[in-house]
Specification:
alpha/beta; Quinone Oxidoreductase, Chain A, domain 1; seven-stranded mixed sheet; binds zinc ion
């Protein structure tokens, strides 16, 4: 079967190649992939150097939904099937977790030190089929398209950042730095949580995505290269800053902006990565008695809630999908995401 494979750790070492269909064994199912979202981390793997070559070659793709076509044969003998052939499902992203560390036992397996994610250390879903542990699967309600369900994963990232790792009370002001897919979904989650003023900030090159933020209900957008964010922040509420800043930008320097914009006793949640060192003092966190939280991945309860939101239509992610293409045209999707032309590209194997 054709698969989008990263085969080396240098930029550009990703190609469509022929790989075997995986076997299913006890505790796993074979999923026929209906739709797989292109994530910023997939794009990163195409354009940047990978830190380690462990796990290569690897099939990319960790945002996916599909249909169960085979169930590991030994399961039936040893325990009850939770899934059967024909089930429409989405999958979580941790292909392996140890199951025995303190985090796994407490249900926080997203931070299991032994976690291996699809599309990075384990073969992902940019292929006709992917092998998935049953533990990762969630049933989809009837009427929820598999194309949209493929966006459940980034929705879970946003849910974890806004609902689990932040506290938004009705009427709170929220500033989101970075209008990429995660930033836009954080906007949607902040709205669902009852936020008052929501400002989304980005660069001039983000113009299309900032326009989408307005469509998705942002109160205001800010072009950080043309406008003075401090002035915008002073115009919100009592002028002391925003209750919550979400850094979804992928730039280390955004944390400086977050510290400037957060109000005393406010909260900063960092969900965007930023590999560069931060040449700035963290003293504003102290002076403002602010809270800084990281947010990574998601776990079972978040998935069930996001699927409920998608299934009921309360959360509508269709406007984010700017490009759909067959897997053979994977590069178009990666390029469109890289250039910020679309918020989300979805591939169909
Ligand atoms: Zn992702
Ligand atoms: Zn563990």
């Amino acid at each position: 079967m054709a698969a989008v494979v990263q085969y080396g750790s240098q930029p550009g070492e990703v190609e469509l190649r022929d790989v075997p269909v995986p076997d299913v064994s006890d505790g796993t199912v074979l999923l026929q992939v209906a739709a797989v979202g292109v994530c910023g981390t997939d794009v990163h793997q195409l354009y940047h150097t990978r830190k380690s070559s462990t796990g290569l070659p690897v099939t990319l793709g960790h945002e996916f939904g599909g249909t169960v076509v085979a169930v590991g044969s030994a399961i039936g003998a040893s325990r009850q099937h939770r899934f059967r052939e024909g089930d429409r499902v989405v999958s979580e992203t941790a292909e392996y977790i140890c199951g025995t560390c303190a985090y796994c036992r407490a249900g926080h397996y997203n931070v299991c030190p032994h976690r291996r994610g699809f599309g990075f250390r384990a073969n992902g879903a940019m292929a006709a089929y992917v092998r998935v542990p049953e533990r990762c699967l969630h049933q989809l309600p009837d009427g929820l398209d598999l194309e949209l369900a493929a966006l459940a994963e980034p929705c879970c990232v946003a849910y974890n950042a806004i609902v689990e790792r932040s506290r938004v009370r009705p009427g709170d002001s929220v500033l989101i730095l970075g209008p990429g897919p995660i930033g836009l979904l954080c906007l949607a989650m902040a709205r669902l949580s009852g936020a008052g003023t929501i400002v989304v900030a980005g660069l001039t090159s983000d113009a299309a995505r900032l326009a989408m933020a307005l469509d998705l209900g942002a109160s205001q957008t800010v072009d950080l290269q043309l406008e003075d964010l401090a002035e915008v922040v002073r115009s919100i509420g009592d002028g002391h800053g925003v209750d919550l800043v979400v850094d979804a930008s992928g730039s280390s320097r955004a944390l400086e902006t977050a510290m400037l914009a957060v109000r005393p006793m406010g909260h900063i949640t960092k969900v965007g990565w930023g590999p560069e060192p931060l040449n700035a003092s963290l003293d504003p966190i102290v002076a403002k008695a602010a809270t800084l939280a990281g947010s990574f991945s998601h776990a079972f309860n978040t998935w069930e809630r996001v699927i409920a939101l998608l299934g009921s239509g309360t959360l509508d992610v269709a406007p984010l999908v700017g490009l759909q293409a067959p897997l053979t045209r994977w590069r178009e999707g990666f390029e469109a995401m890289h250039e910020g032309r679309v918020a989300k590209a979805v591939l169909h194997p």
